[in-house]
Specification:
By secondary structure, the protein is α+β, with helices and mostly antiparallel strands. It has eleven helices and 20 strands.
Length: about 475
């Protein structure tokens, strides 16, 4: 999980949305999912269900869509633009890996502690206790290092996380993972530095802020298996590689913005100096680690996370003499900047007014075809010891269980899908006498493709109210 969950670009889908069949979302060419009382079938394989199972039919319908491989789609264009900066003879491409992985692949192989919040059912889609929908492309890192097909690799794929509902988050989104490794028995730091110097020529006009040393004893520690010289060389190679990506991607974005500005007065963002800064951070599977930020439209945009791969991963891959770097980037986040797309739901649209704006190998600014009116409705309810929560996976109720925000989001998705633009917690208080908690959520209904009628919004909101009671056992206010 290379970026903080609150900022990761994500994607949400649902077929039920009062749309004509040709415009429904998340309809892959293959039948991705079927369920029985004791099993769930994903991509042709059956998996036993248990108390951990929480993959909804709406999420399962998204499996197999592979937006990152659809010709002329902005996610696919973005993927190819980044891939172009990594020579294929050095970086093998993996773009069709299954999203169904084991918990060992998704968490254990990367050193996630057992109490890490990413392991919680509230954050991750569990097929069953030992199987999940991958939450990041890093789930394949150990297997690909073990395969050792080339010095590096790139993985592009759909990933799944239970998350907020707003214009920049969706439970299905796309990531690219990149990695490069060297055998320390046959490679010197001078060789790695020479490669880094060649890469630096690709970003010579980029303004870079990197005030910290390559590693720090407490803030960003050097791993004991690495010499200071080779760790610094690998860090330089990593940073120069990603700076070249910034120049390519944001150079295209600036050119598109310049053209849009000449036509419609888009703004001055295209004329700002291109600047990046490196920020020390922490990831469980790299050390030292960094985030890369880009100055865009006057604000610092968190772009990606990266670092020097933990040596234990190479040992587990039967490559104990190797070391290297890895990075992970959200493709939606880049594409929204690159094309000026304001709402992440649009990536899942089948509306020709959206899809026909894009062509493979070409970057342009998205032209909004309409802004349909919105409708806001609130739903308030009591939770706490007087309420029971139903766990559908276990088929029983419990008392005194706190309602998690992501559980509310899943119910909204299941009822209203992409009719909802945003869900916000607007009020929370504890009753002074009963000790019960009250929550009030504001649901912002707005279709991207048509005007919603009051009747259908009212009907859908009433269905949502009933679903909250039936699923979470709350008491409506």
């Amino acid at each position: 999980m290379w970026t903080p969950r609150a900022l990761a670009a994500s994607a949400r889908c649902l077929e039920r949305a009062f749309l004509p069949p040709a415009r429904r979302l998340c309809q892959p060419s293959l039948r991705p999912c079927s369920t029985t009382s004791g099993s769930i079938s994903l991509l042709g394989s059956a998996y036993p269900r248990d108390s951990w199972s929480n993959v909804t039919p709406q999420i399962a319908k998204c499996i197999g869509s592979r937006l990152h491989l659809q010709p002329n789609h902005p996610i696919s264009i973005t993927r190819q633009l980044i891939e172009s900066q990594f020579p294929p003879h050095l970086y093998t491409r993996y773009n069709k890996l299954s999203p169904v992985v084991s918990t060992a692949q998704n968490f254990d192989s990367l050193g996630f502690p057992l109490d890490h919040p990413g392991r919680a059912k509230t954050d991750t889609y569990y097929v069953n206790e030992t199987t999940v929908l991958r939450t990041h492309t890093s789930a394949h890192q150990l297997d690909l290092f073990r395969k050792n097909a080339s010095p590096g690799f790139l993985v592009s794929a759909d990933v799944y996380r239970r998350d907020a509902i707003d214009r920049s988050h969706y439970p299905v989104f796309h990531q690219m993972e990149g990695a490069r490794a060297w055998d320390m028995n046959t490679t010197t730091h001078e060789t790695i530095n020479a490669e880094a110097s060649e890469l630096a020529a690709l970003s010579k006009d980029l303004e870079v802020m990197d005030p910290n040393p390559p590693f720090h004893e407490t803030r960003n520690p050097l791993q004991p298996q690495h010499s200071p010289e080779i760790a610094a060389a690998a860090a330089a190679h990593l940073k120069r590689s990603l700076e070249a990506v910034v120049v390519e991607v944001f150079g295209k974005a600036r050119a598109a913005a310049t053209m849009a500005a000449s036509i419609s007065g888009y703004g001055s963002a295209a004329f700002e100096p291109l600047q990046v800064r490196w920020v020390e951070t922490y990831f469980p599977f790299t050390s030292p680690s960094w985030e890369l930020e880009v100055l865009w439209q006057g604000n610092w945009l968190e772009l990606l996370g990266c670092g020097i791969v933990q040596h234990q991963i190479f040992k587990n891959a039967n490559l104990p003499s190797h070391m290297g770097w890895a990075f992970g980037v959200g493709l939606e986040r880049i594409a929204m900047v690159l094309f000026g797309i304001p709402d992440i739901r649009l990536f899942w649209s089948q509306d020709e007014r959206f899809l026909k704006q894009f062509a493979q190998g070409h970057v342009c600014r998205f032209q909004e075809f309409s802004k349909y009116p919105s409708c806001r409705k609130d739903v308030a309810f009591w939770v706490g010891s007087a309420c029971a929560r139903v766990d559908p996976a276990e088929g029983r109720t419990g008392t005194g269980i706190e309602v998690h925000a992501n559980d509310v989001m899943e119910i909204v998705r299941g009822v209203a899908g992409d009719m909802v633009e945003d869900v916000e917690l607007i009020d929370e208080f504890i009753h002074p006498k009963t000790g019960r908690k009250s929550l009030c959520y504001r649901v912002h209904y707005r279709s991207l493709e048509r005007t919603l009628t009051n009747e259908e919004v009212n009907a859908r909101h009433e269905e949502l109210r009933k679903a909250l009671v039936e699923t979470l056992g709350v008491e409506l206010r």
